[in-house]
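User: two proteins, same treatment. go.

Assistant:
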Amino acid sequence: QVQLVESGGGLVQAGGSLKLSCAASGFTFGNYWMYWVRQAPGTGLEYVSGINSDRGYYSDSVRGRFNISKNNAKNTLTLEMNALRLEDTAQYFCAGARDQINIYSFKKKHFSYYGEGTRVTVSS
């Protein structure tokens, strides 16, 4: 049974930091692109970051503030979030895909696996 379980969300003041984790099971984690995407209330899914092997990719809005990492031995994906802003408030989802997604036009159906998410709230 495939599972992606996110953790680490919470309430943080603007400028603060959080570390999100995603525990994966039930599939060959190392063979997949892994992503963090987010959804703010009333909006659509937004690409945050992706990683294949050791190279991470980031949206313009988080580049320089967030860091993605993938541990294939432990089947874990992490997202270190620094200098958080009010606009980072969202539900954050961990997702996996066999191929690289189009970060400008993806939908949930483009992922092979998808977690339930963890909420991040940034306050002023």
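Protein 2:
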Amino acid sequence: HVQLVESGGGSVQAGGSLRLSCAASGYTDSLYCMGWFRQVPGKEREGVATIDSDGSTSYASSVKGRFTISRDRAKSTLYLQMNSLKTEDTAVYYCAACYLKPLGLYFAYWGQGTQVTVS
């Protein structure tokens, strides 16, 4: 089992920056990837960025060039550096961890979410 705890959310003006953190504990060595998702009330949760076990990253087109996903293996912590924030980035951000299954990535573990508000 894996536990994920996000931190770093808050309120910021448009154009500003925030860094989200996600502390992972438990059987993290078995994970294939970790990622960040976000959700606005009334809308489906969307993927923001992922990083897999060899360090390869992927980003949603809406955040590419503004957000950077990274991890510190020694601290078992995942980060999301968010720059040039826009009002449309306002959402609850979730950290998630995945396994690689025959049919693709399976995000088995989720954090509780952290609110990001851009005004």
